[in-house]
Amino acid sequence: MPKFEQSYRVLQHSANADVRSLSAYRSKGGYSALEKALRELSPEQVNQQVIDAKLRGRGGAGRLTGEKWRITRQSEDDQKYVICNAYDADSRSLAARTLLEQNPHQVIEGILLAAYAVGASEAYLFTRSTSAAAHAAVQQAVQEAVEANLVGRDILSTDFSCTISVLGAEMGFMGGEETVQMALIKGRRGMPEQRPPFPAQYGLWICKTTAINSVETLVNVPYIVREGAAAFASVGSAMTGGTKLLTVYASPTSEPQVVEVPFGATLRDILDHAGLSTAANAAGAVVVGGAEGGALPLSALDTAYDFDPLEEAGVIVGSGIIELLPVDTCMVSWAMGQSAYLTKESCGKCVPCRLGVKRITGILEGIVSDLGVSGDLDVLDEFADYVPNGSLCGFGVQATNPLKTAKRYWPEHFTTHIQEQRCPTGTCVPVRAHRFVTKHVLP
Ligand SMILES: Cc1cc2nc3c(=O)[nH]c(=O)nc-3n(C[C@H](O)[C@H](O)[C@H](O)COP(=O)(O)O)c2cc1C
Ligand code: SF4
């Protein structure tokens, strides 16, 4: 089994388990990165270290964090903000809540370093209100940090000041999207906004420039400042420094586990590290990226876990979930289930996503019920292009990944249902009595 424990940066080793209290975190070197930054480094130097470390956003898109911060820093706004996105949009991902519960002070130290680097004096941490233990743990840690003059005015007797407000909301998948969070913080209805302009140019309150980062991105910053960019980037791939937290499921109904692996590890090594074998779990496919991710056949297990190789294979980092599917899974039915879930989670603001994902679900329901015709495959292909291309936010851009990967890697599952009117794995039950009639999407 690969020894990824040696590269743990944000989860704690069992021997180093409890750093939840301020005193325990400080006894392991906690807040020394903040002290070093405030006393020895300029904000530009902190920013440059984060660029050199090849820290890429863990929230899904993989943008270079330091480049995003540089735009925020260079803005002439007198007031700037930092938002820590600790929402876990995909409710089956445990990454954000694990960090908040297990290592809250490292999250706070990361937020403060980001605020120092971009020139912000107010930060918000946005989480799911239903993750009560995580919410309580980070609130208590902020309180401890305020009392120790690590958060608030004139931090550590320097002229750097920064407050942190912890906010919680429960609004399904879309609560994790950045413009939705900014709207909610401002007390508005949580709906995605058109970009550009990006939050780094047009953010909170009266359009003030805002650096919004995933909690998992920010929790890596103390290590970079304390140990240096080269030490950080010594773990990871050529393109992406550091590690990734993954929520791994042995099957759709199993208990999850959270693991930390270096970027660039293969899917096979990750499963080994999690103690899973595709043979022992009678697996037929691996889903990468959670609800908006795609499915890969076992022949793709040597794919490296990194933004670009995953995208080439048709899957995404997404919510950081990896899940094995049983060998008798009908992939038409699987894609239908994912699509039905995404239909419910779409906010409905734009037509391609609101109607397109629903239509895909309907056509797949027809095929699963052995009511499909060969023309359905062409219509599905049209939707698979039309929805991502016409959608306003990242939700619609990724929503057709389950369909696209199921069609790409298991075309025979579709043709067997349509041409032979039977399920290729003998597992599907009809869900419709009538065909879902859909004309071509594009003229
Ligand atoms: C539908 C949707 C849900 C998202 N959910 C999350 C989430 O739960 N956590 C997160 O960090 N980013 C999430 N993102 C990405 C954020 O919008 C944003 O890009 C991210 O917080 C930026 O941080 P990063 O640069 O550190 O990745 C989501 C995006 C979309 C479109
Ligand atoms: S793509 Fe979907 S989730 Fe995003 S704004 Fe449009 S309807 Fe809403």
TrEMBL record:
PROSITE patterns: COMPLEX1_51K_2 (PS00645)
Keywords assigned: 4Fe-4S, Iron, Iron-sulfur, Metal-binding
Pfam families from the UniProt entry: Complex1_51K, NADH_4Fe-4S
Recorded GO MF terms: 4 iron, 4 sulfur cluster binding; FMN binding; metal ion binding; NADH dehydrogenase (ubiquinone) activity
Top-level taxon: Bacteria
Occurrences of domain NADH-ubiquinone oxidoreductase 51kDa subunit iron-sulphur binding (ranges): 332-377
Family: Belongs to the complex I 51 kDa subunit family.
Name assigned to this protein: NADH-ubiquinone oxidoreductase 51kDa subunit iron-sulphur binding domain-containing protein
Source species taxonomy: Bacteria, Bacillati, Chloroflexota, Ktedonobacteria, Ktedonobacterales
